Each structure stands twice: as C-alpha cells, then as structure tokens.
Amino acid sequence: MKNKSWYESFVKTLYERYPKKTHLVEALMDLLCIEREAAYRRLRKDVAFSVHEIVKISSAWNISFDKIINISSGKIPFQMQPINYIAPSKQELKFLKFVIQSINNLKDFPDTEFMGICNKLPRHLLAGFGYLNQFYLFRWMYQCGNEKKTVPFSQIIISEEQLRLTADYYRAVKTLPQTNFIFDRLLFEHLTSEIAYFHSIQMITDDDKKLIKTDLHALLDYLSEIATNGCYPETQNKVNLYVSQLNVDTNYSYTFTSQINICFVHVFDKYEIYTYDDEMAASFRTWMQLKKRTSILLSEVDQKSRIEFFARQRQTVDML
To answer: What's the rounded Cα separation, in Å, for the pair 94 and 30?
Structure first.
C-alpha cells in the first residue's frame, strides 16, 4: 500500500476495541467468517482488509468514518446503539454479547477504572436484581416504547436468553479492577415516588410492589456491604460509593484504561450516546472526578454517616 497512514489508523482502532490480539483475531474470525491465519495476515498488513470488510467491521463495531481515516473535523463523534431490550434482534443480541466480552477483556488491565454518576440506578447494579431490572424495563417501555398499548409491569416478559445475558453482564462488571459510583442524594426518593405513581394508576399491582420493595431492600443490604468493605463481595475488586450533595441531572459514566477509553451519556432510560475519542474521555474523567468535591464518601470511612445514610434509604423504601 502506497499510503499506509489511514490503514494503520484503522488497525489501531481495532486494537482499541480488543486490546489483546488473540481476542481481536477471534472477533474478526467470527464477524468476517475467515480463518485464523487470514485474520493474522490482515493485522500484520500482509493482506489488506477489503472495502466490504471495513464497512462490515465499522458497522458492527460502531467505528466512525473519521476514526477510520484518522482525520479531525473539529467535532467529537458520539454514537448511539438503540436496542429493544424486551425482544432484541439477532444483531442487537450480538452487540450485547460484544459489550460483555469487551468488559471481560478489561479485567486483564489492572489500571482499568469505571466511574458512574447516577440519578437513577445504574445497569451495573440493576442487572443483579430481577424485579428492579424488570421495573426499569417496564418504565422504559411505558415512556419510550413504540407500542400504542401500554403494558403493565406483570406483562413484561424477559426471554431466557436475555436473562442469561443480563446475568453475564452482572458478573462481568464486577471483574473491573476499580469502580466508583456517585449517587444523587435523592435517587431512592425519586425511584420510590415513580413506583408509587405506577401503582396509583394500576400499572403495578400490590403484589408487584411487594416484590420490587423486597428487591430494593436487598439492594440496600448489598450496597451497605460494599460500602463497609470497599469492594464487591464476589470479586474483592475495589468499589467506592459516594453520595452527591448537589442534584445530578442524568447518568454519566466512563471506562478508562491505558489502552482504551470510552465515555457515555445515558439517555431515554436504557440508551447511551458514547464516544471513544481520547480527548473527550479525558475531559469526562476530569469533570466527573471533580464531582467528588461535592460528594460524601461512604466506603470504608465515617461509619456514622454510612449507617445514617442507609437507615434513611430503608425508611424511604418502607414508606412504599
């Protein structure tokens, strides 16, 4: 190739998705239906990816054209992957599996850090509590679903495959070496108010509300254990819990490593817009770290504040 700069940029972008070469090779084999040696030859640049292959990779892995040809338009490209979490297509299921595999790959990098600022429960936690997860799916369907007829909580059916993926995701996020959460101080008050509202319009039955309430208490017990020990009990990986003293307007998050960075703005309950742009990810990291200035650390310090915080949240849940 006479002009290798754009091709080298493209290959570099592939490694950003899969930092380990063996993982990248396997992903390419699966996506392009090629042999292992054929994938290695493309990465060694002995053979070029065809235009068709580049288009297929960029579409499946959400790589922007600017990123491929390594040009700067002066704008930060954000992407969005809408997913039907109730009845996902084959392509959407493949994307969800890709996300889980990407998280699992990050556990091999000890500098990996995840941080989320939340005014609603993050997926990292929801995935472990079935009725709470179902409530957020119901809420998303009620507000953002395309169906004309509203579906009550009890009729939200989650497929077995989707349940398995949710469980896989819940296990994967606990393998990250370091996690930070900053919760809006009114997060549980807002959540219980929403549950009470849907109960008042008979979209949630008395029995449904009891099940959700039980999950909320279980979640608070789990968070209390994390805050006391400063880690996930399943993996012993570091977790810091904070409570913001200022209101949080939406959920933001980033994953930062020496190899790959990505930041998210969470929108429409279950969706995200995201970018792999290094400068934007670095800015997100700076902005979100500054949020600690107006937050109280619950993990491993100030036992009195920690006990009082969880006592208040349990009182809020009890009022449901």
So the answer is: 11
Query: What are 94-125's pLDDT values in tens digits?
Result: 888 888 988 988 888 888 999 999 999 999 99
Pairing state between β 271-275 and 251-256: unpaired
What's the Rg (C-alpha) of the chain?
A: 21
* CB contact at 8 A, 135 and 212: yes
- Alpha-helical (H) ranges within the chain are 5-17, 21-32, 36-44, 51-60, 65-69, 90-106, 123-126, 130-144, 160-173, 187-200, 206-229, 278-290, 303-318
Helix 21-32 with 36-44: angle, nearest 10 deg = 120
Which residue type is seen at 137?
L
**Which distant-in-sequence residues (6+ apart) come within 8 Å of 108 by Cβ?**
19, 20
Enter the tokens of residue 261: 């960075």
Cα–Cα distance, 248 to 123 (Å, whole number): 17
User: Quick check: 263 and 204 in contact, CB under 8 A?
Assistant: no
C-alpha 12/C-alpha 208 separation (Å) is 49
Q: Which residue has the tokens 């030859």?
A: 41
Q: Which of 279, 214, 288 is nearest to 67 (CA)?
A: 279
**What token pair was written down for 72?**
């700067």
pLDDT digits over 121-163, tens only? 999 999 999 999 999 999 998 887 766 678 899 999 888 899 9
**Does the predicted model carry a pTM greater than 0.90?**
no
**Residue 269 near residue 123, CB atoms below 8 Å:** no
| Domain range list for the chain | 5-69, 79-318
